[in-house]
Design goal:
The complex is a heterodimer.
Chain A (H helix, E strand, L loop, with lengths): L4 E2 L5 E2 L6 H6 L9 H11 L1 H24 L30 H37 L1 H15 L3 H13 L3 H12 L1 H14 L3 H8 L4 H12 L1 H25 L10 H9 L10 H25 L8
Antiparallel strand pairs in A: 1-2
Helix pairs in contact in A: 2-13, 3-4, 3-13, 4-5, 4-7, 4-8, 4-11, 5-8, 6-7, 7-11, 8-11, 9-10, 11-12, 11-13, 12-13
Chain B lengths: L1 H28 L15 H11 L5 H12 L18 H36 L4 H15 L2 H19 L20 H35 L2 H8 L4 H18 L1 H4 L1 H14 L5 H10 L3 H29 L6
Helix pairs in contact in B: 1-13, 4-5, 4-7, 4-11, 5-7, 6-7, 6-11, 7-9, 7-11, 8-9, 11-12, 12-13
Classes of the chains: A mainly alpha, B mainly alpha.
Chain lengths: 314, 326
């Protein structure tokens, strides 16, 4: 019988090796870091992305908490306070109907963000469904699905969205969400498909297949998590795009209309007071630009953080 | 080359077919019917029924689609795209009347973009990490993040409201329209009206192009042949202009085709903001008043433009890059 010695990593050490102890010392003792720990470290190095994340979190928190606390105040008109200047409970003053501008702005941000998030759910859902089927099945299914993607990609997006929203019910939040979602999933589908084509023959997928895992398990538990990185980036940028589209729709009068508040209809409204109160056009615009800028910095940061090939600087 | 262009054009046909099916389905699935506008008390149900039969709305959907598509492609006939519900004019004629305004707007915006973005992007790349580069990159990032409609509102406000106020009404840009009353056909007047819409349409394009040009130029500047050119003592201008720029422009050329969809969507919004009488504002008006024939025609035209832009990008890439073989 042979004596087998194991070192810390569980490797079999040759029993005859003369300087076992010396080898032992050279073992890399830096703690093993998981993928997510590494990703977090890479993300933290991206200063702009961290700032963007903080700003976004604050904005999202304000947008969801302020309307919750103030209730229907965003739409309440007050004749005594028409165009009244800023006070402590209305830091941005009152508008032409005596509504509290700050509260209304937060409600509008909430509406726009909700539509953005919901549309991105559709984009990510449909995109990963189509992309994973095409990438996993390959062959004729892949070919057909990708031709369909080509067609959707060639649609004049804004025209189609405007058409859907105008014909299926302008002012309906759900119509707006669906219109943005079903025209915007092509990029996500292409990304997921590309990842799947590469992953299909990867060792760990082969291993899962060899262990007898079914298609559903391979796709959902093994391949999708591995293909997540580009999807997360696309989702971050998708929120910004959807928020812009919603604002543009509402601005043109097809999206969310008054008395409901959205960043777009606040801008339309502000346009009428160019001469008397031009500052009113600045607030919703500023929030919009802030969301878009932060989402794009966040996207950049996530792209670097989730890419395992990126090195961690000292 | 000619064979390649031909083959790509043939490949675009199924995409047109797909677009037409999707657009037709959306209109068909939408609640309401084109005859709804006749449902007023003085029109009897029998007359409505006659209209439905006249329009062929009682036929199976496949038959409706085929009859629409086969008529739609006969663009040499003035009635091919139907008649507008609003004024009864042939849609084709309305589109042809309005098209020059939009082409002028988009063309000028594109020209301004090319003329400004390429030098700016090259400058930022050549002076990488300098203050010039930082300023350009910051402006490009912010310019790219500002939605074009937002920019349109602010530019309209600044050029049409603030400037006249500052200068006591002596200097300012027109707030709306394409030409002043009584000055039809005056080129200077047309250009004057174009300044603000073109600015608001072009800034996002310029930002995107400049960023792309910068990264493309940076990539080329790190190539061995550029170092060789420098090493053998060529003057700086020659290295940058002849060795670097010409190669860096190759991927940028495809942007000419790829920026068309963005310009198209931007034009619809910009034209609406500036009340500019082009196809974009016509689309927004028609979609708002459910003018089905105009909506259909303009959406199909939009799809055609997008496909044409992609085709153009592919072909241009082959033309400027000698390494591409067909």
């Amino acid at each position: 019988m042979e004596r087998v010695e194991l070192n810390r990593e569980g490797l079999v050490l040759p029993a005859t090796a003369p300087n076992v102890a010396a080898d032992h010392e050279e073992i890399d003792r830096t703690p093993v870091r998981t993928y997510w720990q590494l990703a977090r470290q890479r993300f933290v190095q991206h200063r702009l992305a961290v700032i963007a994340l903080v700003v976004l979190v604050v904005l999202v928190a304000l947008a969801y908490i302020v309307p919750l606390v103030t209730g229907p105040l965003f739409g309440r008109t007050n004749l005594a306070k028409i165009d009244a200047p800023a006070t402590l409970e209305a830091p941005l003053g009152y508008d032409e109907l005596g509504r509290n501008t700050a509260v209304r702005l937060m409600k509008a941000t909430q509406t726009s963000l909700t539509i953005g998030f919901a549309a991105v759910l559709i984009i990510v859902g449909v995109g990963s469904l189509v992309g994973s089927i095409a990438g996993y099945m390959g062959g004729i299914v892949d070919n057909l699905l990708m031709r369909f993607v080509d067609i959707v990609l060639s649609l004049p997006v804004l025209f189609i969205i405007l058409m859907i929203v105008a014909l299926f019910g302008a002012g309906n939040v759900w119509v707006v969400i669906i219109a943005i979602g079903i025209t915007g999933w092509t990029l996500a589908a292409r990304l997921i498909r590309a990842e799947f084509l590469a992953l299909r023959e990867a060792d760990f997928v082969q291993a899962a297949r060899a262990l007898g895992a079914g298609h559903r398990r391979i796709v959902l538990r093994h391949m999708l998590p591995a293909a997540m990185a580009p999807l997360v980036v696309a989702a971050a940028l998708g929120v910004a795009d959807s928020v812009i589209t919603e604002a543009a729709l509402s601005f043109l009068g097809f999206g969310i209309s008054s008395p409901e508040a959205s960043l777009g209809n606040m801008l339309t409204n502000a346009q009428e007071y160019f001469y008397s109160a031009p500052i009113r056009a600045v607030y919703p615009g500023l929030v919009l630009v802030l969301i878009v800028l932060c989402a794009s910095f966040l996207g950049d940061g996530l792209r670097d953080a989730l890419d395992p090939r990126q090195r961690i600087g000292k | 080359m000619a064979r390649y262009v031909f083959r790509r054009t043939i490949q675009a046909l199924p995409i047109f077919f797909g677009i037409s099916v999707i657009v037709f389905m959306v209109i068909h699935l939408a609640p309401g019917s084109p005859v709804d506008r006749f449902r007023v008390p003085r029109v009897s149900p029998a007359q409505i029924q006659r209209l439905i039969e006249l329009y062929g709305l009682d036929k199976p959907i496949l038959q409706q689609y085929v009859s629409w598509v086969t008529t739609f492609v006969q663009v040499w006939r003035p009635e091919a795209w139907g008649y507008s519900f609003l004024d009864g004019q042939p849609v084709l004629e309305k589109v042809v009347t309005r098209a020059p305004a939009t082409l002028r707007l988009m063309g000028t915006a594109l020209a301004v973009t090319v003329l400004l973005a390429i030098p700016v992007g090259v400058l930022a790349a050549v002076k990488q990490y300098s203050w010039t580069d930082k300023i350009i990159t910051t402006f490009a990032t912010v310019g790219y993040a500002i939605p074009s409609f937002l920019l349109g509102i602010y530019i309209l406000f600044f050029g049409g409201v603030v400037l006249p106020q500052w200068t006591g009404g002596r200097f300012g840009f027109p707030l709306f329209g394409m030409e002043s009353f009584g000055k039809q056909g005056d080129v200077l007047d047309l250009a004057w009206h174009l300044v603000l819409p073109v600015t608001s349409l072009a800034i996002q394009q310029i930002s995107g192009w400049a960023r792309f040009m910068r990264s493309s130029m940076l990539e080329v500047l790190h190539q061995d042949y550029v170092r060789t050119a420098k090493a053998k003592g060529l003057p700086r201008g020659r290295v940058l202009g002849k060795h670097a720029l010409r190669n860096a422009l190759i991927p940028v050329v495809t942007l000419l085709g790829l920026s068309i969809p963005g310009l198209l969507g931007g034009a619809a919004i910009t034209e609406t903001i500036f009340s500019y009488p082009g196809l974009g504002s016509m689309f927004v008006e028609s979609v708002g008043s459910r003018d089905y024939p105009v909506v259909l025609a303009l959406t199909m035209l939009g799809g055609f433009t997008v496909v044409f832009g992609n085709l153009l990008a592919d072909i241009l890439y082959g033309v400027v890059d000698p390494r591409i073989k067909y």
